[in-house]
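Protein modeling request. Please complete all fields; requests missing the sequence field cannot be processed.
Requester role: graduate student
Desired output: 3D structure, token encoding
Chains: 1
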Amino acid sequence: MSENNLRAHFRQHFNISLGAYLKNYRSHQAILYLQNPNLSLTEIAFELGFTTLSAFSRIFQQFHQRIPTHLQQAIRSAKAVRYFEEFMTRFGFFIWHCWFLRIELLIRSTELTAEALSSQQSAVREILAY
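Delivered output (130 residues):
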């Protein structure tokens, strides 16, 4: 089958051109790749078959109405928020409880110091009273 026949059959069966389908597929695959913090935009563009970063950005913006850098930053900040929420869910109560115990110990030690000081003051008063 020739390339022209393939394109004609593809359009006939899927009601979209092969080129448009590939652009759509690549732009949606890019979203998956953008979630990997270890990949740069250039690596993602070349992995998806784009020859230049500008071509990748242009096609991506056509489908998603934003440039890939903005989406990558949004994904990373959302992951940071989710990580913090998960951390607080898992360990937040424990951390809060530890701080509460620490404050309680400080209050108790202050009370004990105040009691010791007042008992020393009363002992000094008794001695001076003699």
